[in-house]
């Protein structure tokens, strides 16, 4: 049965792309997976949807720019690499778009401080009026380890909440959440639908298998649940296989986390039924 999720009705969408897709195989920023994602973003914008891109990759870009080989870096080194790599990441994305892109750097302090959060929200609104694509990253050059979002997954969820988004798409390098680690267990099964308040899904999540990624599936699930608690639906899907393109056919491209029914765009009973039967 087709997973009818009615993608047409989602207006404000946050798309998170991690380091594993931006700098695959520990290489410098690559177009391999980013170009299809950029084309999907352009398709969404042409359909009248508002898109905010949350992009990791600054530390990885700085790491490769300097040709470093030592993986064990302290906080100061990572912050310096982020400062070098941030402009590289922005230039990397800009080449895929005809319109302007806008860099927005945030920390947990910005999100938690009401005045700064309101200013950030106003900036996003003005960027929308300008027609620019916001590209958000954590301000790694100033944030301390204790305040980090965790590979930008939680940052993406917080940006979704801040901007009253309808949908959060987390592009990973796996198909979604499995009931076991698919890299160790070939019989692991993809969990296609996660009910609201189903925190058991956290027990299935694991840390990152990629040396360039920080959070792994656990941080993605935690981000999805954070968005869900605010009524925002979330999808974790495989950015390497362009699974997100299935949304145009109203198919569930990975693991669908249903938000609590407090927002107008939360999934309808028919959405829930079709996904449950998939």
Automatic annotation (TrEMBL):
A Pfam family: AA_kinase
GO molecular-function terms, A-Z: ATP binding; glutamate 5-kinase activity
Keyword line: Amino-acid biosynthesis, ATP-binding, Cytoplasm, Kinase, Nucleotide-binding, Proline biosynthesis, Transferase
Location of this chain's protein in the cell: Cytoplasm
Entry protein name: Glutamate 5-kinase
Residue numbers binding ATP: 16, 172-173
Residues where substrate binds: 56, 140, 152
Protein's pathway: Amino-acid biosynthesis; L-proline biosynthesis; L-glutamate 5-semialdehyde from L-glutamate: step 1/2
Aspartate/glutamate/uridylate kinase domain: residues covered: 12-238
Lineage, broadest ranks: Bacteria, Pseudomonadati, Pseudomonadota, Gammaproteobacteria, Kangiellales
Gene Ontology cellular component terms for the protein in this record: cytosol
Reactions listed under catalytic activity: L-glutamate + ATP = L-glutamyl 5-phosphate + ADP
SUPFAM superfamilies, per the entry: Carbamate kinase-like
Protein family per UniProt: Belongs to the glutamate 5-kinase family.
Function text: Catalyzes the transfer of a phosphate group to glutamate to form L-glutamate 5-phosphate.
EC number: 2.7.2.11
GO biological process: L-proline biosynthetic process
């Amino acid at each position: 049965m087709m997973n009818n999720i009615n993608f047409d009705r989602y207006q404000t969408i946050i798309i998170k792309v991690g380091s594993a897709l931006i700098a695959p195989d520990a290489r410098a920023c690559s177009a391999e997976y980013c170009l299809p994602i950029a084309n999907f973003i352009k398709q969404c914008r042409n359909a009248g949807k508002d898109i905010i891109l949350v992009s990791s990759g600054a530390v990885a870009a700085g790491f490769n720019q300097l040709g470093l080989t030592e993986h064990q870096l302290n906080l100061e080194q990572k912050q310096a690499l982020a400062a070098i790599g941030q402009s590289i990441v922005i230039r990397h994305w800009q080449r895929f778009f005809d319109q302007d892109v806008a860099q927005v750097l945030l920390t947990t302090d910005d999100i938690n401080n009401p005045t700064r959060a309101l200013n950030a929200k106003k900036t996003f609104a003005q960027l929308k009026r300008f027609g620019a694509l916001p590209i958000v990253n954590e301000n790694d050059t100033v944030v301390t380890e204790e305040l980090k979002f965790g590979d930008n997954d939680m940052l993406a969820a917080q940006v979704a909440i801040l901007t009253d988004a309808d949908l959060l798409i987390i592009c990973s390098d796996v198909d979604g959440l499995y009931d076991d680690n698919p890299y160790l267990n070939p019989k692991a099964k993809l969990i296609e639908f996660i009910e609201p308040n189903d925190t058991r899904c956290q027990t299935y999540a694991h840390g990152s298998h990629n040396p360039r990624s920080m959070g792994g599936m656990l941080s993605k699930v935690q981000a999805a649940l954070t968005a869900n608690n605010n009524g925002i639906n979330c999808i974790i899907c495989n950015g390497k296989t362009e699974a997100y393109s299935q949304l145009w056919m109203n198919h569930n491209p990975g693991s669908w986390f249903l938000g609590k029914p407090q927002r107008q765009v939360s999934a309808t009973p028919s959405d829930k039924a079709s996904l449950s039967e998939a």
